[in-house]
Amino acid sequence: MIKVVIVDDQTIVRAGFAALLDAQDDISVIGEAGDGREAVRLAEADRPDVVVMDIRMPGMDGIEATRRILAQPGAEAIRVLVLTTFDVDEYVYEALSVGASGFLLKDATADELVSAVRVVARGDSLLAPQVTGRLIREFTQQRRNRPQAPAELSTLTARETEVLVLIAGGLSNSEIATRLVVSEHTVKTHVARVFTKLGLRDRAQAVMLAYESGLVVPGANSA
């Protein structure tokens, strides 16, 4: 059972999401919060698998709440799914930078919300293609005057580096396996090693590192 906490300052939004998610056989909404401080408290007390997090809220916003939740001892298994709209891309960038596992547009369909919760719960990232490209182009270029690759990148083998680039391109493990003509099990092994060597918790952080370090250049074809 996937345990979920919903965070949004609009009561009607929380109620709608809760009703939708609770109707699923494999999802249980164990708490709701109207602001970031309450979200941090609930996450610490109830240890949800997924926190569905709004960004813009009075008091503590979703970015700071995400930072604090994921910094708690024993929070390694918690995943944060950020809710956003097209006009808050910069906030999404910040949320991913502090450890959010992905983001979903607020006008997403019911099926998309349910699917997104399941995706992040199993440890994958959710990086919507229609937002990710714009996000990466606008904000990595602004923040990266002279990119410096972290020293840990040098510990990757050539194949592990190739896998990281393909992850940054949005490819799934099965798609990477097809591209490299190897088994999906082999890809999973490479991904695990990349995460371990670079200290990453999920694919979202891998994407951010690949762009911020200059390993992948916005607008370039990494295929």
TrEMBL record:
The biological process GO terms on file are:
phosphorelay signal transduction system; regulation of DNA-templated transcription
Q: State one Pfam family annotation.
A: Response_reg
A GO molecular-function annotation: DNA binding
Instruction: Tell me the InterPro entries matching this sequence.
Output: CheY-like_superfamily (IPR011006), NreC/VraR/RcsB-like_REC (IPR058245), Sig_transdc_resp-reg_C-effctor (IPR016032), Sig_transdc_resp-reg_receiver (IPR001789), Tscrpt_reg_LuxR_C (IPR000792), WalR-like (IPR039420)
Q: Which residues form the Response regulatory domain?
A: 3-121
Which UniProt keywords are given for this protein, alphabetically ordered?
DNA-binding, Phosphoprotein, Transcription, Transcription regulation
Question: Could you identify this protein by its name?
Answer: Response regulator transcription factor
Q: Which species is listed as the source? A: Actinomadura barringtoniae
